[in-house]
Amino acid sequence: MVPSSSISGRNWVVTGAGTGATSATLGQWIQSHGESCRVAVADPENSAYFPGWTLDLPDYGTGMPSRIEGIGRPRVEPGFRPDLVDLVVPVPDAASVAAARHVREVTGLPVGASSGTALWAALELVDRMRARGENGQRRLADSAGRFVGSQASAAEGAGELGLGLTIGQRTQASLTRSVWLGFGQNSSSSRRHN
């Protein structure tokens, strides 16, 4: 069950690309309750969801596993419902790991790389929302638990990441613009318009 307080009045909800069941459940709930919130799926490197969604190929496979534990798949899973997803955001693994590390350092929250993936995708959306003059916020949903140590060296000294900004610069830019911790409250947007 989806708590209505988590969705009502929000622009977007961002979830990781695991089996596809979470995005499908959220999308079904949003449709059945007439909410205007949109669903974005954060997809790590080598995962099949972004190319499968973009190419409209429900059985797409990359043949490569994701390096971000808990999310990403080498093939699109049957539980994934592309008709209920408004956007799939590809996220480089280095960005996922660096974002999680930054959140741990700044907040002390024990988040893993899958949260970093969702955070990076959310920051992409915040950038788009800001360009349109909308508000955006991000909540981290999981605890790192068993995954923190396994990703420790994947982005050692992430620095520039080759992505234009360091994760610290990107999150600091979002923090300074008051777009942190929640994710978007603006009921004026309609579904399927990114």
UniProtKB/TrEMBL annotation:
Keywords from the named record: Pyridoxal phosphate
Transmembrane intervals: none
Cofactor: pyridoxal 5'-phosphate
InterPro entries in the record: Cys_Synth/Cystath_Beta-Synth, TrpB-like_PALP, TrpB-like_PALP_sf
Pfam families the UniProt entry points to: PALP
Residue intervals of the Tryptophan synthase beta chain-like PALP domain: 11-130
Official protein name in the record: Pyridoxal-phosphate dependent enzyme
